[in-house]
Design goal:
This protein is mainly alpha-helical. The chain has eleven helices and two strands. The longest helix has 27 residues.
Length: 238
């Protein structure tokens, strides 16, 4: 009911505690009551949130074991900054539909910046950058691997193009026009959009008739990387 330590130390600790709470209980600012902050103590909300987070951290494995399948979960904080930085504040305030839309817009804008284009966007943009045709003036390409004429090259870029089209047609557009998007549906939606910009070791940029020399250099560097990691890369390399 009272502050037990120096105010400056508590404030410094709160800076770290809030980051932990944001990770463990993303909606703690809205779900944990804050009325007592003014009536009793300014840290009442933090205290209750910490108590809840402590239980989650200590008993999370037990809860998963008894109540459901202990399957892997997507951590939004591990997504690329293009996705999570654009969606974080909206997601944490419960605006899941708007968060997915913001993430999709951010990926589109940064891709436009990367290839220096403003005349196309979203589906048409990704169709152009992943086209298997040679680059043309004003129409650079993004490459997941050097064009060696193989089926693998064609499959990777055809798949990336189709995946991008699916994200914008099936996730971004509905999330912009429907009245609501549940959190359960929004999480994989944001994850799929996040996959669009997952850094690719061979995500070079070709401006002329051939892919850039940087692709060959990165191809040599990528040979030591696990094949699975290379196969999971989808769009651009920062």
């Amino acid at each position: 009911m009272r502050i037990a330590g120096p105010q400056d130390e508590i404030i410094a600790s709160a800076q770290v505690v809030e980051q932990i709470l944001d990770r463990v209980l993303p909606r703690w600012r809205t779900e944990v009551p804050s009325e007592r902050n003014k009536r009793v103590n300014r840290w009442c909300q933090h205290r209750e949130a910490v108590q809840r987070a402590d239980v989650v951290l200590v008993r999370d494995a037990e809860i998963k074991e008894h109540l459901g399948d202990d399957a892997p979960q997507i951590s939004a904080a591990t997504m690329h900054p293009w996705v999570w930085d654009g969606a974080r504040s909206l997601w944490q305030s419960g605006h899941f539909r708007e968060a997915v839309t913001a993430a999709a817009k951010k990926v589109n804008a940064e891709t436009q910046n990367k290839v220096g284009r403003r005349d196309v966007s979203e589906t048409n943009l990704f169709k152009s950058v992943f086209s298997q045709d040679p680059p043309k003036p004003g129409q650079p390409r993004l490459r997941l691997m050097a064009n060696d004429g193989s089926d693998t090259f064609r499959s990777l870029h055809r798949g990336a193009m189709s995946f991008a089209e699916g994200c914008y047609a099936g996730i971004r557009n509905p999330s912009s026009h429907e009245d609501g998007l549940a959190r359960a549906a929004g999480t994989p939606g944001a994850g799929a959009v996040g996959g669009l910009q997952r850094p690719g070791p061979l995500g070079g940029l070709g401006h002329g008739g051939d892919v850039s020399q940087g692709i060959a250099r990165e191809q040599r560097q990528a040979r030591c990387r696990p094949r699975r990691q290379r196969a999971c890369c989808v769009l651009v390399r920062l």
